[in-house]
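Colleagues,

For the teaching module next term, I've prepared a clean inverse folding example: a structure given as tokens, and then the sequence designed for it. I'd like students to try predicting residues themselves before seeing the answer, so please don't circulate the second half yet.
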């Protein structure tokens, strides 16, 4: 799931920077919380997930898929709701609660995958196989 995560990271980078430029141009910084989360949870974290999944091939790919979909369903719910709440529309608070909890579950799946499925010995074996193919 390295490449899908990297591609989504770049999409979030474009949106995050779009928010930043909008705030600069209007000198209205109400959305800075959403801007920071889009850039850090969207761009920076997803780029890291992408690099980790690409580099460590022994990690469980079906768990990585669950992580990817949960994360990418949670993020738009969370970020759109957060943006509306930051500009004063409190009816979007439930969206923040749903989105942030889904995001936290996605992170738990990622943590489980790295802590329990990533094995140094498997990585060494994979590297050896790759070297033998060259
Ligand atoms: C073209 C690129 C960017 C522009 C124009 C931009 C613009 C801004 C602006 C106008 C603010 C509000 C400053 C204030 O409150 O006075 C801000 C805050 C912030 N930005 Fe950006 N930004 C950009 C890229 C990024 C990136 C790449 C990241 C992280 C990876 C980032 C993370 C943050 C954080 C953490 C804050 C503070 C939020 C807070 O205080 O609640 N920004 N940015």
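(Answer key — instructors only)
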């Amino acid at each position: 799931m390295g490449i899908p995560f990297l591609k989504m990271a770049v999409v979030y980078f474009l949106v995050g920077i779009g928010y930043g430029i909008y705030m600069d141009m209007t000198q209205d910084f109400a959305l800075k919380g959403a801007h920071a989360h889009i850039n850090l949870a969207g761009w920076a974290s997803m780029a890291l997930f992408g690099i980790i999944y690409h580099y460590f091939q022994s990690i469980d790919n079906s768990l990585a898929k669950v992580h990817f979909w949960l994360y990418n369903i949670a993020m738009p719910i969370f970020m759109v709701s957060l943006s509306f709440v930051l500009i004063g529309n409190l009816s979007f608070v439930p969206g923040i609660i749903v989105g942030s909890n889904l995001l936290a579950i996605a992170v738990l799946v990622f943590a489980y995958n790295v802590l329990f499925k990533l094995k140094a010995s498997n990585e060494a074996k994979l590297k050896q196989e790759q070297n033998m193919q060259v």
